Amino acid sequence: MSLGLRIEEIIFNLADAHLFFNDLEECDQVHIDDVSSDDNGQDLSNYNFAADGFHSSTNVNNPCISSTVRGGVDWMRKLAFRYRRIKEIYNTYRTNPQTLLGQQKYEELLQLRVDIEGLTGSWLTLAIKALNIIKQRKNCINVLVTTCQLVPALSKVVLYGLGGVFDIENIYSATKIGKESCFERIHTRFGRKPTYVVVGDGRDEELAAKQLAWPFWRVSEHQNLTALIHALEWQFL
């Protein structure tokens, strides 16, 4: 629990410092491109996010519930700018969080990950092995559906070393709409031709997979994850 709290602190610090989580906690999206239609494509290289009035135009209790300015074209554009910038940051640092964290915090993160791996029997290493096998196949991709809000989820993916196996366009947050709705969105996006396999340990994803008649591979213990790796290596899956 202590290690979990320490890594959680790093996750939220990164989300606040670099991914606008202070601005966006109440304006969460399911997918990084959900507000992109409000983006006018303006060059953001010299844009001052801290002084663009985004905060002052929000309702204090809930920034995503309408006030006179919030919800207008100008406010929505500023929201879209933040999600575009997040996308740029993720794609730049997805495999290199060291630059974002600074050396001291990065070393602390690495030590935390080593300690957690020791306590969990290298769970993360096994998971990354399976995900890498999938990513390296020509006709396969990894799609992440999480109950975590989108911005902290992106922070978590980068800090756990998963940035290389999940493209930002393939990350969905089920916080607002639930996993079944996320699965339906994914199905609409990719169509009927692909084979979908759901890998998880929760009842939510199992039931959602069942609704869409997608096979479900439970990974609640090490032998499940090891069996998944074998199935992938031997092309059974």
Automatic annotation (TrEMBL):
InterPro entries assigned to the protein according to its UniProt record, in alphabetical order: EYA, EYA_dom, EYA_dom_sf
Q: How is the cofactor bound?
A: Binds 1 Mg(2+) ion per subunit.
Report which reactions are catalysed by this protein: O-phospho-L-tyrosyl-[protein] + H2O = L-tyrosyl-[protein] + phosphate
Hydrolase listed as a keyword: yes
Q: Which UniProt keywords apply?
A: Hydrolase, Magnesium, Metal-binding, Protein phosphatase, Transcription, Transcription regulation
Q: Does the keyword Magnesium apply?
A: yes
This entry's Enzyme Commission designation comes to: 3.1.3.48
An example GO BP is:
cell differentiation
Pfam families reported for this sequence: Hydrolase
Q: Name one cellular component (GO) term.
A: nucleus
The residues that the entry says bind Mg(2+) are 201
- Required co-factors: Mg(2+)
Superkingdom field: Eukaryota
**Cross-referenced Gene3D superfamilies, in alphabetical order?**
3.40.50.12350
- UniProt GO MF annotations: metal ion binding; protein tyrosine phosphatase activity
Question: Per the similarity annotation, which family is this?
Answer: Belongs to the HAD-like hydrolase superfamily. EYA family.
PANTHER family, alphabetized:
DEVELOPMENTAL PROTEIN EYES ABSENT, EYES ABSENT
**Name of the protein:** Eyes absent homolog
Upper taxonomic lineage: Eukaryota, Metazoa, Spiralia, Gnathifera, Rotifera
